[in-house]
Design a protein that fits this description.
It is a single chain. With 239 residues, the chain is an alpha/beta fold. The chain has one domain (8-179): Rossmann fold, CATH 3.40.50. The chain has eleven helices and five strands; from the N terminus they run βαβααβαβαααβαααα. The chain has helices spanning 18-27, 40-44, 49-55, 70-76, 89-100, 106-112, 121-138, 157-164, 185-196, 199-211, 224-238, and strands at 8-10, 32-33, 60-61, 81-85, 146-149. Strands 2-3-1-4-5 form a five-stranded parallel sheet, covered by helices on one side. It starts with 7 loop residues before the first strand and ends with a helix.
């Protein structure tokens, strides 16, 4: 059964600026969800109903598994807008290796057929390439429904807001999850402070801010609770 409600769906593969995209959509006023690692088990069994049910609760989707489900989401939510974030292949693979390391996850098992990138770099890269090739083919006759965002080339508010028919915010376009090679002076100072502060103090500070009514930035994509539980399972799996 199709939903009458359209969505904004970021179908760029993970590690291509999906967090930046999510933050930009949140600034524009969309209710965004991000990675939902807990959906992997059902998806591995070919069950997508749980993912569709989650998607129904949000205006915008980004990260995994949403990028891999673009065809199903297109059918379920007609007239949606799709955003394809892109990144140089070599840069993407290096970032994936640094971020995923040797850890195995069910979500990566669903996406790549194998849960760990170690020793499977070629498989991961081919899946990445396959995704972009298939997306371009799928939308080749529907250019009005999709936009490509390349943050390295300076794509930002002008391009995004024109596509979504939204006014340009007064805030600067976000640049989230920066690699250290892109840090400015302020970023470098923050990084040094993170290294100095013990983990318990950082957690305590965040908890206090939440109790005082400040939003929990760790949950800005409405997924923290689900992902924390799933990551606890992964810790047992990888130990």
């Amino acid at each position: 059964m199709q939903s009458e409600e359209s969505k904004v769906i970021c179908i760029g593969w993970h590690k291509t600026g999906t967090t930046t995209m999510g933050d930009a959509l949140a600034i524009l006023g969309y209710n965004v969800t991000g990675a939902r690692l807990d959906l992997a088990e059902n998806l591995l069994q070919g069950k997508i109903d749980s993912a569709i049910n989650v998607a129904q609760n949000f205006d915008a989707l980004q990260d995994v598994p949403w990028a891999a489900l673009y065809k199903e989401l297109d059918c379920e939510f007609p007239n949606s807008k799709f955003i394809l974030t892109v990144r140089n292949e070599k840069s993407w693979l290096l970032s994936a290796q640094k971020h995923f390391k040797s850890k195995h996850t069910k979500m990566r098992e669903y996406l790549y057929g194998t849960g760990s990138i170690d020793g499977n770099e070629d498989i991961y890269l081919k899946r990445y390439q396959k995704h972009y090739s298939e997306v371009k083919e799928y939308f080749k006759d529907r250019p009005e429904d999709i936009i490509t965002m390349d943050f390295k080339n300076g794509d930002g508010w002008n391009k995004l807001c024109k596509f979504l028919d939204q006014p340009i915010p007064k805030k600067s376009f976000p640049h989230s999850n920066k690699g250290k090679h892109n840090y400015n002076i302020k970023d470098k100072i923050r990084e040094q402070l993170r290294k100095i502060l013990p983990a318990w103090l950082k957690e305590w500070r965040l908890d206090i801010l939440v109790k005082l009514g400040y939003p929990d930035k760790r949950n800005r994509f409405n997924n923290k609770e689900f992902n924390v539980k799933e990551m606890q399972k992964y810790q047992n799996l990888n130990n």
